[in-house]
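for the writeup, i need someone to sanity check this before i put it in the appendix. the sequnce is what the collaborator sent (i think, or maybe the updated version? ugh). structure was predicted straight from it, no edits. if anything looks off just tell me and ill rerun, i have time this weekend
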Amino acid sequence: MSQVKVITDSAADIPERICGELNIGVVPLTIRFGDTEYIDKVNLKTDKFWELCLAAKELPQTAAPSPGQFQEAFEKARADGYQEIVCITLSSSLSATFQSATLAAEAVSADIDVAIIDSRSATVGQGGLVLDAATRAAAGAGLEEIQKVIKSELERVRVFGALDTLDHLKRGGRIGAATALLGSLLSFKPLIEIRDGVVEPDGRQRTRSRALNHLIEKVSSHRGLSHLAVVHAQAPDIDDFLGRLSSATGIAVNDIFVSEIGPVIGTHAGPRTLGVSFWTE
């Protein structure tokens, strides 16, 4: 058994099957529809989330895990025999998740070494770092080595997305209201980038087709890229997009990591969002 336990939060959008295979611990965020709270991945699966969104009069809200939730995960890892923990969280500029994990690490510091890493990213950008850490842990790497490598990789991660609307980001306070208003009035398809840990506008396109072409051009313009991933929120054109992305990059469809946007990111991105993540040289 590896001596290092890798833990993340549910914003990383890593499929449950892969988390199980790599023994990745996931601390869930909370999703609130009005007065009703759900625990991501526990009593709120992705399909149910989108059903609730369609029926809801108001958009849902998210809340970071408490320090106690992280502490429970850290203590369980110690009880399971792990000697060290690497915890990679959603960007600290987007959520209080990193702060909760840091407080929890301090609470258990006398019993187990915990390294908290701010991914400065989200969804499969964050998830790619988690997968790399877990793969290294499974191969026998220790906490110090994993922490050093992951921190060196943070600047290489790029994440871009094409949204159907900026309404979700605007209401969730994750992007400026003026930009959201402009995109809505002109019926543009907004493009975003996670840059330096925050969501930034990356332009607008008149149609979804042009927006998705923009994503493909973003990816294919980089040479020597790796860790190519695609994430989507019930996008009906995902298969077509993967085929065109494969043709543009020369990377086989089977070698592109594909995941679904879960409730946390879906709350702020909205349905039909399609995103890409990759690492630069």
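The domain at 156-279 is CATH 3.30.1180.10 (Hypothetical Protein Tm841; Chain: A;domain 3). The two ends are 32 Å apart (CA to CA).
thx in advance!!
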